[in-house]
């Protein structure tokens, strides 16, 4: 497994890097036999350290965790515990579905845009109805079953996930509703 351990305006020493590799490999290999790479980023938020961890699995799914603590090692340990919990749930769901994905998830390329927010006074009218594009990026849309899409959305901690439904070859959306349930849009 490849590790990318970095600090955002923080020096990450050899001791911390070794600690991260040893602990994270133990967590990931316990639940997933085929991880591909992991990215761990440390940063500061006020007086706290923030640890963000992303693990890509060979099935194409991604697990993410984020934690805050007053000490850098404590921040990583809390993040590692969250990752452990997510991967344990992922493994349990795979066993519950009695199905292991043998082939990697197929990814479809798409464009993603960031639009400028228009903060106007209450009485002011916008000059144009066309939004201003701030950034354009390439994104990947995975080809998943609905169950895998829900699992991926929860692993990533995202409020919404766009995916290509394997059964129908059409784009679908799963999202977290305000009442806590999960919605599924199938056009």
UniProtKB/TrEMBL annotation:
It comes from Marinibacterium profundimaris. Gene3D superfamilies: Ribosome hibernation promotion factor-like, Sigma 54 modulation/S30EA ribosomal protein, C-terminal domain. Interacts with 100S ribosomes. Associates exclusively with 100S ribosomes, which are dimers of 70S ribosomes. GO terms for cellular component: cytosolic small ribosomal subunit. This is Ribosome hibernation promoting factor. Required for dimerization of active 70S ribosomes into 100S ribosomes in stationary phase; 100S ribosomes are translationally inactive and sometimes present during exponential growth. It is found in: Cytoplasm. GO terms for molecular function: ribosomal small subunit binding. One of its GO terms (biological process) is negative regulation of translational elongation. Residues 130-183 form the Sigma 54 modulation/S30EA ribosomal protein C-terminal domain. InterPro entries: HPF/YfiA_ribosome-assoc, HPF_long/plastid, RHF-like, RHF/RaiA, Ribosom_S30AE_C, Ribosom_S30AE_C_sf. Belongs to the HPF/YfiA ribosome-associated protein family. Long HPF subfamily. Keywords: Cytoplasm, Translation regulation. It holds the Pfam family Ribosom_S30AE_C. It comes from the Bacteria. The lineage of its organism: Bacteria, Pseudomonadati, Pseudomonadota, Alphaproteobacteria, Rhodobacterales.
């Amino acid at each position: 497994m490849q590790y990318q351990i970095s600090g955002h305006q923080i020096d990450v020493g050899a001791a911390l890097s070794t600690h991260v590799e040893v602990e994270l490999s133990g967590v990931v290999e316990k639940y997933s036999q085929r991880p591909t790479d992991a990215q761990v980023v440390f940063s500061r938020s006020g007086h706290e350290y923030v640890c963000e961890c992303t693990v890509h699995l060979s099935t194409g799914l991604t697990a993410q965790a984020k934690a805050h603590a007053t000490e850098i090692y404590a921040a990583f340990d809390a993040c590692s515990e969250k990752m452990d919990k997510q991967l344990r749930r992922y493994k349990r769901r795979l066993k519950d579905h009695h199905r292991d994905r043998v082939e990697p998830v197929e990814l479809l390329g798409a464009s993603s845009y960031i639009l400028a927010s228009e903060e106007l006074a209450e009485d002011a009218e916008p000059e144009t109805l066309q939004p201003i594009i701030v950034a354009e990026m390439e994104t990947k849309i995975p080809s998943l079953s609905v169950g895998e899409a829900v699992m991926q959305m929860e692993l990533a901690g995202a409020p919404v996930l766009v995916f290509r439904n394997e059964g129908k070859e059409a784009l679908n959306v799963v999202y977290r509703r305000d009442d806590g349930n999960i919605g599924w849009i199938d056009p």
